[in-house]
Amino acid sequence: MATDAAEKLIAELKTRAEALGFDAFGIARADSRPDLPEKLSHALAAGWHADMVWMAETEARRGDPRRLWDEARSVILLGINYGPEADPMTLLAESDIGNISAYARNRDYHDIIKGRLKELAGLLARRSGAGVKVFVDTAPLMEKPLAEAAGLGWQGKHSVLVSRQFGSWLFLGAILTTLDLPPDAPGKDNCGSCTRCLDICPTNAFPAPFRLDARKCLAYYSVEHKDQIPREFRRPMGNRVYGCDDCLAVCPWNKFASVSREARLRSRPEFERPSLADLVRLDDAAFRDLFSGSPVKRIGHARFLRNVLICIGNSDNCAYIDAVEKRLDDASPLVRGAAIWALRRLDPDRADTIRQARLALEQDETVRAEWDGAV
Q: Is 312 among the domain residues?
């Protein structure tokens, strides 16, 4: 495509992207990050992906967009600001509140972004005749390093993309196209000597700057992990019922994330300060209704209750004992196990009193182990 025609097309795409509610726009070549396969291989070999086996299974395609689609020549990266209204860190001191990660307080970002990406990609295809494909964290595409290559920002020491305009709060989406488009200048690292994101981590999940070990990450355990939360990470969870924002929330560049616009995402009020007392009483239908359209719904009722019960165990509030004891009869071993830990934290004498009777009825070995495990 001739330079003038390309510039005209890009200008039209940027205008349409802004109208659709995108806050950031950039272009990178599909082959702009030849370093990714080696970096990915190193991370997988070190086991930093924990039990997210799909990362290893898609390694060959994940490291290079052209392995996903060999005709791809350019990648358009789009970002939407989801910066929270208030500092998420302030809720960590309120032990009776279930702290939901800022990104999950909105409607599921996959649903928010994908439709808009398809509309923008359709415009590109109509104007140029080029092939297009859209991606929103549902395919093995490494959006963050590509967004850095496209000039949207840089990957911070916490591995998340950081933007001069929006701090650490950007949802990302990508359009792969067969069209050769002039790329933007890559983002420049502006972290300097700052290590706030590394220092704040309650579980030391960063073995080094720019490296995240999911095996120590609270966001991973509360969202991706399907089994019981390892005991050493339960107390550090505090009141985090879904995700962890600590390393994002302390980023100094967030002071610019409050830049407001009419299309800016707003969190759902019911997710800003939900009480643990209400959350622990949710049955499956109520859980699905409350979190309809939310990414929280994807982890399912049992895993969510697991998280809630761990947070209740951390609350040191004996008012929850009755609600916790009712969950000892839950159909899910995951919930029963977490309820045991919470009861033993809140009322060890009561736990000792009912222990033998419960063990006589319990068939699940993971649940039985909770009666004798450390708190």
A: no
Q: For residue 84, tell me if it sits in a domain.
A: yes
What residues have CB less than 8 Å from 302, skipping those under 6 apart?
330, 332, 334, 335
Q: What is the pTM of this model?
A: 0.94
Alpha-carbon distances, residue 51 vs 39, 140, 220 (angstroms): 18, 16, 10
Query: For residue 260, what pLDDT band results from cuts at 50, 70 and 90?
Result: very low
Question: For the chain, how many structural domains are there in total?
Answer: 1
Token couple for 363: 């068939």
Nearest Cα neighbor of 81 from 263, 251, 244 is 263
Residues recognised as catalytic:
137
Torsion (CA) 107, 118, 165, 35 in degrees, nearest 10: 110
Q: Greater confidence, 131 or 264?
A: 131
Question: Does residue 359 sit within a domain?
Answer: no
Structural domain includes residue 139: yes
d(CA 156, CA 314): 31
Q: Nearest Cα to 305, choosing from 274, 271, 332, 344? A: 332
CA distance 179 to 169: 29
CA–CA distance, 136 with 159 (Å, rounded to integer) = 18
CATH code at position 40 = 3.40.109
Q: 154: which strand partners? A: 162
